[in-house]
Amino acid sequence: MVERIIIGELRAWKTKISRKPLILRGARQVGKTTAVNLFARDFKQYIYLNLETARDRNLFIQYPSIDTLIQAIFFEKEKLLEEKDTLIFIDEIQEVPEALSMLRYFYEQYPQYCVVAAGSLLESLFDTKISFPVGRVEFKVVRPFSFQEFLLAMDEGNALKQYHKIPMDTFAHDKLLSLFHLYTLIGGMPEIVLSYAGSKDIVALTSVFDSLIGTYLDDVEKYTSTAGQTQIMRHAIRSVFMEAGNRIKFNGFGNSAYGSREMGEALRTIEKAMLIHLIYPTTQTGEPFMPDMKKSPRLQVLDTGMLNYMAHLQKEVFGTNDLNNVYKGHIAEHIVCQELLAHQISLLHKPLFWVSEKKDSVAEIDFLAYLDGRVIPIEVKSGATGRLRSLHLFMDAYRGNVAVRLYAGEIRKDILTTSSGKNYTLLSLPYYLTGKIGEYLREFAL
């Protein structure tokens, strides 16, 4: 099994003095259950409850008292009640909304046990009568494999050492770039990555992709209450892969006749299920940067490998020397965003992008990302540094003096000057170091 980034976060959570029950968010099939099973090795005792099974589900339905519930759980699973070093994992918690309410009592009355829950579409599936344990639970998110986790799964030990070395050796560049292209091609869904690691056969992944995407389509009924809504949702899920990387409008999304209200509701529901992210722009040049929800968002789907498969881009990605040449640069931007999100455990922040839509200065910065408490503009672009007009415009107005460019080349640092005479540092990094931006900035630019 691959040691996920989330495992380190779980271990840190375990050692907190005032530890609250933890809810893991994430789309289906991203490895939430596997991650907890790995984490369970740190405990003397592990109790797994899957609320999709009637036997485990009935425990929470039959025993509304926390004292009785605890005793029933330990009795049913043949575990020792007095063993404090116990992990209790409540999987598929959305199947019993009452179980969510019970988390507060685990926190208040049985803090000696580590309690983790996982579920999907929590915001939409819970009845409004259910009391959400505000302030008594924590949240973390599990996403597809990062490039770091991909290297581990592929048993690329030397490449992984170079990835972690700051700065890496120049001789490792070509191999890491090639491996990052492979990662971009097949994506980071655990089942896909592990299947490829075993077979090294991209063609054999066809059935795995079909099964994976079919699972999401089969889940549609859980998000809807009428046949009409089901039809809209199915259209939305199929269409997001064709529209990924683009700025979208809800009205007529996916060449449909559906209006803004219908498609907006469908896409926001899919976002709650964490199958997509709607990345909104900001027009501000000073903090705090706020998304402008009135403007068209950029569509980010769960996984670039799934996007390549559904949009028939696999051959183009496979044959390129520079990801920026594929799909008008959208694939490079998409995988960079996926990497930025993979290293963002919190649900509170997601990347923005910056736009200036004035008649005399239309410009766009690919990402504004929070790193070490500051906002760093990030461009995903090949070519000469002198062609970064949008970045110059932004840096002229922004109080910061550091920016990042991600591209196919090697690590370099430049001092650039805007048209108004402001100097700023541009740190250029290869795509595969997206997850290391913070460390390289601290080493070379901050």
Automatic annotation (TrEMBL):
InterPro entries: AAA_14, DUF4143, P-loop_NTPase. The keyword ATP-binding applies. Residues 218-383 form the DUF4143 domain. SUPFAM superfamilies: P-loop containing nucleoside triphosphate hydrolases. GO terms for molecular function: ATP binding. Residues 19-151 form the AAA domain. Keywords: ATP-binding, Nucleotide-binding. It comes from the Bacteria. This is ATP-binding protein. It comes from Butyricimonas hominis.
